[in-house]
Amino acid sequence: MKPLQSDSVIPLYHQLKERLKQSIDSGDWKPGDQIPSEHQLMNNYNVSRNTAKKAIEELVQDGLLYRIQGKGTFVAKPKLMQQSLMGLYSFSKGFKEKGMVPNDIVIDIREVKPTPEIMEELQVTGDEQVIEMKRLRCVDDDPYILESSFFPKRVVPNIEPLKRVGETSLYDLLEEEFNVIVNRAIEAFEPVLIRPDESEFLKTEAGKPALLLERTAFDTSGKPVEFCRSIVRGDRCRFYTELT
């Protein structure tokens, strides 16, 4: 095992982090494999406990490793989704193009009284009811997004077609069933921690990092037709954009 360079300008913890990352990237360590303990890394690389601990912590923060209390540190699954933010996108279509099997589980569809935020985003009054559709978005039976979409009743006067969302994409369904064409959206991102009630659906621990996505979609006339709140597992998804 090649020793770390103690006389290098690169900190030892970063050198160790890169060595561990190489073991993951090369496939020597596979998802679910337990990595050497801090004590073993100290002996293998002749480093302090603080150095070993910091290297592991950064890889956990990067989503490459995860800890199980009382058991050790393990290699995380690779991120399911790497989504570009350049224009409108469809999760389900993107996964199908990669040969994966997306599956939407509709949890609930009902009429609800809009909150002030939903009233503002959908341009409805407090006297109007909106349609809420809550669904769990999975890939190869692995849940990765818990999503709630809200629609004005003028857009979705009949909830029955929404039950087919698992069979076709939402925006395709809006066009086919309600003659609503989505041609632009405004989307905001915010880091959050997964709540206990959300963790049950997403099959992960409460307190894990996630992204809160809030999207308002508009039709060709510029009217808002959907307001969507999504909790996206941070360990399974990655978004990127291109700057020019």
Element order: H for helix, E for strand: HHHEEEHEHEEHEHEEE
Task: Calculate the mean pLDDT score and round it.
Answer: 87
CA-CA gap between termini: 42 Å
Query: Which structural class fits the helix and strand makeup?
Result: alpha+beta
Rounded to the nearest angstrom, the radius of gyration is 22 Å
Query: Biggest β-sheet, characterized?
Result: 6 strands, antiparallel
Low confidence ranges: none
**Helix share bin:** 25-40%
Classify the beta-strand content into a percent band: 25-35%
Count of extended strands: 10
* Strand ordering within the main sheet: 4-5-6-9-8-7
Shape: elongated
Question: In summary, what is this structure?
Answer:
The protein is of the alpha+beta class.
Written description of the protein model:
The structure is a single chain. The strands form 3 sheets. A 6-stranded antiparallel β-sheet has the order 4-5-6-9-8-7. A two-stranded antiparallel ribbon has the order 1-2. Strands 3-10 form a two-stranded parallel sheet. Helix content is 27%, strand content 33%. The two termini are 42 Å apart. The protein has 244 residues and is an alpha+beta fold. The mean pLDDT is 87. The chain has 7 helices and 10 strands. The protein is elongated, with a radius of gyration of 22 Å. A hairpin with a 3-residue loop joins strand 1 (65-68) and strand 2 (72-75). The chain has helices at residues 12-25, 38-45, 49-61, 91-97, 116-122, 170-178, 196-202; strands at residues 65-68, 72-75, 81-84, 102-112, 130-139, 142-152, 182-193, 209-219, 224-233, 237-240.
